[in-house]
Input
Amino acid sequence: MNDDARTNIGTPAPTPAGPGSADLHDQVERTRDELGRTVEALAAKADIKAQAKAKTAAVKGQAAEKAALVSEQIRETAGQAAQAVKDKTPDPLLEKTAQAAVHVRESAAKAGRYATDKTPDPLLERAGQAATAVRANRTPLLVAGAAVAVFLLVRRSRGRRR
Output
């Protein structure tokens, strides 16, 4: 055996370059692209987490749209109801109501000024500090108030059972 025969064993014979090989190359590329798209589609179908996220986002969007629509309908209905009440209310009553509202505001302002004038300064300072503390700790105070209310309601209902 000669050396040339040993080196050619197992290697494919060279294909002549011709019009058929270019077509075959294009067909292989198309098949690869199709296979890639198919694999991507199968991977997307198999990704349950991504599907759940997409569905959640869609449902969330629909809920937001529906909430906005309902909110708008409520606003329109409330506006129509307010206008109907205003239309059916006699003008003298509307005027008296407006005057009463002005009078109540003036009386409340006057009472506030009177209370401020008559309250000693140290007490005003403490009240201001208490108000600041309450604003800073609003949540714990609300929770504590709710707990006290529940306790009192439970105690009251137990007292009725006896």
Notes: The chain has six helices and no strands.
